[in-house]
Amino acid sequence: MPWLRQLSSISKPFRRIESAKQLAKRMTALPNTYEGPVPIAVIGGTGLRELPGFTQVASLSVSTPWGEPSSPITILHHQCRHNAKTVAVAFLSRHGAHHQIAPHEVPARANIAALRSIGVRSIIAFSAVGSLQEEIKPRDFVIPDQIIDRTKGVRPWTYFEGGVVAHVPFGDPFDEGIAKVVRECGHSLEGDGVILHDRGTIVCMEGPQFSTRAESNMYRAWGGSVINMSVLPEAKLAREAEIAYQMICMSTDYDCWHSSADVTVEMVMGNMKANADNARRFVTAVLDALAADENTDLVQAKHLAGGIKFGVSTPQPEWSPEAKKKLDWLFPGYF
Ligand SMILES: CSC[C@H]1O[C@H](OP(=O)(O)O)[C@H](O)[C@@H]1O
Ligand SMILES: Nc1ncnc2[nH]cnc12
């Protein structure tokens, strides 16, 4: 069964189904160019290093002024269920093809820049999260609408530095248009295994160690719903790059505040694996919906296009040549 074969590509913590060499070989067998627009990307996180059930048609190695992305970008073809369309979707594995990149090492600037350079204007980002609220049970999905930043300033978090200053609005850190579509898709799967929480505040901690019990309780007192180590700076950089960004969180544990067992990697991976089919059905539904003609402008992030020009504080003649070169790469023809 093809689907069963594909399932084996979901990361396994203790049993390696496919060796690093085999995976690399499979990836290099794909063409390294792709003609045509790729407006949508999926970023896979822990336990989701590939998107099962989709046809891989290319594997792109993109180099950016901010370095190499976490992994080659796989181009997938998705056959929509509601119309005859085949849409191209980019997939990037946040922690690398073999989960070798720690949360604080994720080259988020390169990831977002590389995706933008191939035409991506909307990102659905997956994340395994700890639950900070009783009602968000392991394996539930949460579509967050707010973020509390508990990273420690060790991750590069902006494209605007070294001679060019810009400030972008971030009051609503996720894209409400994409979120609406994602929520509708999640609800359409309810009763069929998917439990969805429409909103929530995600705390982004530095890691890689999990929180102390005192911290976990403090985040609860602050109103945190879930916790991870990766929504930032990804969401901030997407906003700077004029990309519509929404995270889909899958709860994998109750962190360490709850009376049940404290979070472990085994627990996270076990729940990710057990819920892999729901994650696949969720992303399929979202891609079907985003491919609908009525969502073309949304997916192209027309509502964000050009906005960055209003955020730049430094007059263009004063820009440092190095900064200008990098920003010209990110925004060809803008400045
Ligand atoms: C392995 S548990 C901690 C790890 O899981 C989450 O990863 P991601 O957001 O990429 O799914 C969390 O952010 C941590 O990086
Ligand atoms: N408890 C937790 N804390 C931080 N990141 C996580 N990812 C999954 N569970 C987590």
Task: Note the main attributes of this structure.
335 residues; alpha/beta; eleven-stranded mixed beta sheet; 11 strands; 28% helix; globular; binds adenine
Could you outline the blueprint of secondary structure elements for this entry?
Blueprint: H1 2-7, H2 20-28, E1 40-44, E2 55-60, E3 73-79, E4 86-93, H3 108-117, E5 122-131, E6 141-142, E7 146-150, H4 176-188, E8 196-197, E9 201-205, H5 213-221, E10 226-228, H6 234-240, E11 244-253, H7 265-274, H8 276-290, H9 296-299, H10 321-330
Parallel strand pairs: 1-4, 1-5, 5-11, 6-8, 7-9, 9-10
Antiparallel strand pairs: 2-3, 3-4, 5-10, 6-11
Helix pairs in contact: 4-8
Bound molecules: the ligand CSC[C@H]1O[C@H](OP(=O)(O)O)[C@H](O)[C@@H]1O and adenine (ADE).
Indicate the structural class. alpha/beta
DSSP E strands, number: 11
What coarse outline follows from CA principal-axis ratios?
A: globular
Uncertain runs? 1-16
Q: Please provide the ordered H/E string of secondary-structure elements.
A: HHEEEEHEEEHEEHEHEHHHH
* Mean of residue pLDDT values: 92
Per DSSP, the total helix count is: 10
| Oligomer class | single chain
The rounded Rg comes to 19 Å
- Tell me about the largest β-sheet: 11 strands, mixed
Beta-strand content: 15-25%
> Roughly how many Å apart are the termini?
51 Å
Bound molecules: ligand LNRAV4D5, adenine
- The portion of residues assigned to helices is 25-40%
InterPro entries: MTAP, Nucleoside_phosphorylase_d, Nucleoside_phosphorylase_sf, Purine_phosphorylase-2_CS
Catalytic activity: S-methyl-5'-thioadenosine + phosphate = 5-(methylsulfanyl)-alpha-D-ribose 1-phosphate + adenine
Main location: cytoplasm
Subcellular location: Cytoplasm; Nucleus
